[in-house]
Automatic annotation (TrEMBL), chain A:
One of its GO terms (molecular function) is NAD binding. This is Hydroxyphenylpyruvate reductase. Residues 18-312 form the D-isomer specific 2-hydroxyacid dehydrogenase catalytic domain. Belongs to the D-isomer specific 2-hydroxyacid dehydrogenase family. The keyword NADP applies. InterPro entries: D-isomer_2-hydroxyacid_DH, D-isomer_2_OHA_DH_cat_dom, D-isomer_DH_CS1, D-isomer_DH_NAD-bd, NAD(P)-bd_dom_sf.
Automatic annotation (TrEMBL), chain B:
One of its GO terms (molecular function) is NAD binding. It comes from Sesamum angolense. Residues 124-297 form the D-isomer specific 2-hydroxyacid dehydrogenase NAD-binding domain. It comes from the Eukaryota. Keywords: NAD, NADP, Oxidoreductase. CDD domains: HPPR. InterPro entries: D-isomer_2-hydroxyacid_DH, D-isomer_2_OHA_DH_cat_dom, D-isomer_DH_NAD-bd, NAD(P)-bd_dom_sf. This is Glyoxylate/hydroxypyruvate reductase HPR3. Residues 55-327 form the D-isomer specific 2-hydroxyacid dehydrogenase catalytic domain. Belongs to the D-isomer specific 2-hydroxyacid dehydrogenase family. GO terms for cellular component: cytosol.
Length: 313, 331
């Protein structure tokens, strides 16, 4: 397989790069100054693309790769892959489900705890020496809060399981009601938000779910409500979120994803009641290796003419 | 026949008198409410020393509400000859001379396990913060550094890790239940094995640390547990090990902890308590693998409200000769 041309779209993982380099003829899109020039020069030789949440495989890229057979995404989310184009061209698409479920769910709970219990603020209070001058402010309890989950897929379910251990009650909204669960179902996100204290966004980003958390949902969640987003930035109307947080119409937010990463809206920076992470939901030593191994396995199986492990298309 | 109504002499209803020592935070938060239900003696507002104040004002006072910052010694108790009830605002009561209280027939009520969930939640929150770099990540993003630095350091997965809980009381059990849901394997050490739990018992603290990726301190501070988490235990926990302490600072040898963190002989620490509060070793301020909080595990609005209600319920039960809600039984 050393002659198979594989294109990595960005420097997502040094480990993955090494493993691909060992097995394939690896080309690096980010080393080229011009995508157009790169495609003109090397497009014909590429049979596989490895993309991630930052740089995927859009129509322009796919069009420039006439011999493309497979897109193996280093992610579970596929909003950066033009799935329709892949279907048209008969291009295989694989992602990395399951191996990252636990880590993303852990960050969701970690963000909820950090936001409600004001852990980041408390740490700052100690580091700056303010503790010598007085007591820290009161925080809010997490145990027993009602959690509303938008999207009860693998990650949403894992979040629910963890929250239940804290005595939280779980309700959810999903495209369809799930048969094998006792959690309370709401057919729309506004009703879900009106009936929970912590709203967790855990669904995929599609044309239908863009801004699924909008002004109405934020208003329903209310001045004591907390929003946690570990899905995709565009799932939330960020401008409405920022003004609600500024004006005290929402109590707080914990966010791992944003509409414009990494140049996120700087209005977030001054908000005391938000916790911000640089899209690290899957970024642990253990999981990034597991994701990389899965990408490599999918590619190897494909080029051995065997079915890949985690195909989507 | 003439119907004789019972003659009830009219009485001006006097709220019962209590003395507050401290004062505890819950009293400051609920000052108005306490003051409307009880007649409150407030020694901190008096220019007199405490013994003088007690002698002058509290000779007939039967109930005291005390913060855990006050040492209720036999010397203090001596100045409260009518005392029959002490209501403590914490779960721990090592600041109260229990022997002297028993001798005098003074009942002691504490905060029981109303804080256990909040304390356990903070333990999990601190742990997740250390492993997944939440506070560090928040500083990174809010400092505008994300666009400049493509590769942010990886964190560590919680699932599948081995957790050793030191002290399996109410808080330790709550921590265990929560971490199980994240896929952790739980072992514990305690004064005595608990046959009702399925977790592995490991009485030797060093062995527990050697077999764990994460050590969570949930035990009371006693003579036996003072500096129990020694250099030896920390080295056994190891280079990738994480220590979480939501118990008392002095259970851990803080000097050795700082040294091990600086020399990277342990992987990280989440700390709500310190040996010399509110002083915190300044070496910790620079470390990104340490998350600190100012001994605030019980300070949520919800727990303070629950505590206020429990304190009042105990006091009102006492004054109506009813059983106390959180009486500490004689052992």
């Amino acid at each position: 397989m050393e002659n198979v041309g594989v294109l990595m779209t960005c420097s997502m993982s040094a480990y993955l790069e090494g493993e691909l380099e060992k097995r394939f003829k690896l080309l690096r899109l980010w080393e080229s100054n011009s995508k157009a020039q790169f495609l003109a020069g090397f497009g014909e030789s590429i049979r596989a693309v490895v993309g991630d949440t930052k740089v995927g495989a859009d129509a322009e890229l796919i069009d420039g790769l006439p011999r493309l057979e497979i897109v193996a995404s280093y992610s579970v989310g596929l909003d950066k892959v033009d799935l329709n184009k892949c279907k048209e061209r008969g291009i295989r698409v694989t992602n990395t489900p399951d191996v990252l479920t636990d880590d993303v769910a852990d960050v969701a709970i970690g963000l909820a705890l950090a936001t409600l219990r004001k852990i980041c603020l408390a740490d700052g209070f100690v580091r700056s020496g303010q503790w010598r001058n007085g007591d820290f402010e009161l925080a809010n309890k997490f145990s027993g809060k009602s959690i509303g989950i938008v999207g009860l897929g693998r990650i949403g379910t894992a979040i629910a399981k963890r929250a239940e251990a804290f005595g939280c009650s779980i309700s959810y909204h999903s495209r369809t009601k799930k048969q094998n669960t006792n959690y309370k179902y709401y057919s729309n996100v506004v009703d879900l938000a009106a009936n929970c204290e912590v709203l967790v966004v855990a669904c995929a980003l599609t044309n239908e779910t863009r801004h699924i958390v909008n002004q109405e949902v934020i208003h329903a969640l209310g001045p004591k409500g907390i929003l946690i987003n570990i899905g995709r930035g565009p799932l939330v109307d960020e401008l409405k979120l920022i003004s609600a947080l500024r004006e005290g119409r929402l109590a707080g937010a914990g966010l791992d994803v944003f509409e414009n990463e990494p140049d996120i809206n700087e209005s977030f920076f001054g908000l005391q009641n938000v916790v911000l992470l640089p899209h690290v939901g899957t970024d642990t030593l253990e999981t990034s290796k597991a994701m990389a191994d899965l990408v490599v396995a999918n590619l190897e199986l494909h080029f051995l003419k065997k079915p890949p492990l985690t195909p989507v298309v | 026949m003439e119907f004789m109504a019972e003659h009830q002499p009219s009485k001006v209803h006097q709220p019962p008198e209590i003395i507050v020592l401290g004062p505890p935070s819950v009293f400051k938060l609920y000052y108005k409410q306490f003051s409307s239900r009880f007649r409150v003696l407030r020694p901190w507002e008096s220019p007199l020393s405490l013994p003088r104040f007690l002698t002058a004002e509290a000779q007939n006072t039967q109930a005291a509400l005390i913060s855990d910052g006050i040492r209720l010694t036999s010397a203090v108790l001596h100045h409260l000859p009518s005392l029959r009830l002490v209501v403590a605002t914490s779960a721990g009561i090592n600041h109260i001379d229990l022997v002297e209280c028993r001798r005098r027939g003074i009942a002691v009520a504490n905060a029981a396990s109303i804080f256990s969930a909040d304390v356990a939640d903070l333990a999990v929150g601190l742990l997740l913060d250390v492993l997944r770099r939440i506070s560090a990540g928040n500083r990174f993003v809010k400092g505008g550094l994300w666009p400049m630095q493509e590769a942010y350091p990886l964190g560590f997965k919680l699932g599948g890790k081995k957790v050793g809980i030191v002290g399996l009381g109410s808080i330790g059990l709550y921590v265990a239940k929560r971490l199980e849901a994240f896929g952790c394997a739980i072992s514990y050490s305690s004064r005595k094995e608990k046959p009702s739990v399925s977790y592995a018992f490991c009485p030797d603290i060093c062995k527990l640390a050697a077999n764990s990726d994460i050590l969570v301190i949930c035990c009371a501070l006693t003579e036996q547990t003072h500096h129990m988490i020694s250099r030896e235990v920390l080295l056994a926990l190891g280079k990738e090990g994480v220590l979480v302490n939501i118990a008392r600072g002095a259970v851990v040898d803080e000097k050795e902890l700082v040294s091990c963190l600086q020399s990277e002989e342990i992987g990280g620490a989440g700390l709500d308590v310190f040996e010399n509060e509110p002083s915190v070793p300044k070496e910790l301020h620079e470390l990104n693998n340490v998350v600190m909080s100012p001994h605030c595990a019980v300070f949520t609005e919800e727990s303070m409200r629950d505590l206020y209600e429990l304190m009042c319920a105990n006091l009102e039960a006492f004054f109506s000769n009813k059983p106390l809600l959180s009486l500490i039984p004689e052992e």
